[in-house]
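Supplementary notes for students who missed Thursday's class. We covered one full example, reproduced here. Read the sequence, then the structure, then the short commentary at the end.
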Amino acid sequence: MADYSRYGGISPNWDAFMAKNPQPELSPGLSPVQLREMTNKAREKNSREIIATIEGVQTQDFACPSSDGQSIPIRIYKLATATKGDRYPVYIYFHGGGFLFGTLSSEDAPCYKIVSATGIMVVNVCYRHSPEWKWPTPANDALDALNWVFNNMDLIGGYETKVIVGGRSAGATLAAGVVLRDKDTLGKNRIRGQILDVPLLCHIKAYPSEFAAPCKSSYEENKHAPILPMARLELFLDLIGVADPTDRYFSLVLVPDHELTGLPPAHFQIAGRDILRDEAFLYMEKLKRAGVKTAVNVYPGVPHGFKRYDGLEASRQWDEDHMKAIKQLLEI
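Structure (token representation):
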């Protein structure tokens, strides 16, 4: 049984930051759609404020056809100095938000930061969300977007031999899932690496209780933690409607070790006070047993989604760690 509770507790920096920056309470009785509209509006506002301070990045929007006849919005970010004929390493990015939140514009800030810090290209994929769309629609969108990128390298100016994927929270579910699915489909990986930030890697209805030490699992320890308490996680999962909780592209911690052999290197960013903490460590250990190269940054005492607060010491460290992971995976 695994015990990762040493990374839990409450960071003094978190307490001090929250004392100076009290967060508004959610209005009671909001429907999921109302909650999504309110959250997306706030995220887009925050993103606009951040990108106003970042110069030297250009964007271009595309529509990626989905396998069911719909359209997936995609936004590509490059250095403003990029010209036709230039080629760049590619980072395909899937946003977080419990499969409920997120727009292209809400993710401008992290994408701008990555381009500005590394000089690569970022492909921001706005997969479809609950409650209108159910699983596996987001996973299918992720695969369609991946194929679109590889099929349009000349159009977007990317290096097909230098592609990594990454995501935060639910976006990390999609990133990890599309890496495995690409290998399952082709028998090999086109992807050079994966970055999994506070990942959701097992459905709560399929989570093996024997994985964690009694009374020390992140499900118990962080049940009422800020940002993603158990009640919020259950809401997100109910809305996305995963028919089979053991789906290998959702509950990746259940995939047999030998079926993970040959996957590209994985870099994990894990929050110690996160309800999803243990499954991230468990998946990392599975990858190691399968011979996959892994690396990890741990942020003790901060909850899931702490990165939304740029004033935290852990958030500043996260930025530094994320940029290093990108450069290491792409060898740039």
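Commentary. The beta strands are 57-65, 71-79, 88-94, 121-125, 158-168, 193-197, 266-271, 294-299. The CA atoms of residues 217 and 278 lie 7 Å apart. If anything here is unclear, bring it to office hours.
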